[in-house]
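Fold Annotation — chain and its backbone

Fields — amino acid sequence, structure tokens

___
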Amino acid sequence: MTITTIRHGQTAWNLEGRWQGHTDISLDETGILQGKKVAARLANTPCDIIYTSDLSRAADTAGFIAAHHAADVVMTRNLREMAFGIFEGRTVSNEVFAEMAEYDKAGKPYPGAESPRALFARISNFLDDVLLRGHENIFLVSHGGTILAIIGYFLRLSVEDLMEMPVGNTAIHVFKKLPAGWTMTTENDTRHLT
């Protein structure tokens, strides 16, 4: 069994360094081009089914990929990015980190947000179900934080282990099931963009 994850293409908010979370931001012109490039890169990769986040930046990227495959596309909220609540739309900055730290010190969740642990639990439940469905070659089109949770699931890593791991726009990660368990054979591969 092989699982291939693909992060969505670039958005204007990616360029501006804004938290996107569940906010539905479309691909920008560069993101559309990136989506077409990753689709061409994966055109000859076996694919039985494509699961994608229902947010347009991922769903549109999945659409480019699906054009090269005779595979069903299943949109699901389970592959959405982690919700950042009141911080969505804000730029990643020292000011925002200071506000987050105040909530952390008080032991309070960010209003309207999802914790990394809740994201990991959501992804774990989703993947437990997907792996029982009998497909051998599965594409998952999703978001940076969600892909980190997928990596954690397959490699048995914690939230803390993954916080600094990069996931570029349209980056490919590949996981293969071996007799000894899951292994990651491709990590953060964006060669198709060069």
User: Anything to note?
Assistant: The chain has a mean pLDDT of 94. The two ends are 29 Å apart (CA to CA). The beta strands are 2-7, 49-53, 72-76, 137-142, 172-178, 181-189. Residues 116-130 form the longest helix (15 residues).
